[in-house]
Amino acid sequence: MGTMEGMKFREHEFKLDPGDRVYVFTDGVPEATNAENELFGEERTLAALNKDPNASLEQLLQGVKSSIDEFVGEAVQFDDITMLGFDYFGEKVEDGQD
Question: What's the whole-number mean pLDDT along residues 34-54?
């Protein structure tokens, strides 16, 4: 991860339940730009993420990247496109314990 001088960070907490999926990305994803200088944007990002709800994590990330590539076409990008996803399976429960 990178930071910028003078940037303030806040702590956030949220609960993950077994089966939850987390997707994080750099600003290069929504800011990917096509030849008409249009941004990929949050709506296209969400549409790509929700395209196949049953996709494996690998398929999900490849699908988002493919959607970005199709949108961008031959336009040269000025920023990185970085994505991270993980599935939360929950804590392992010992036999006989809930």
Answer: 96
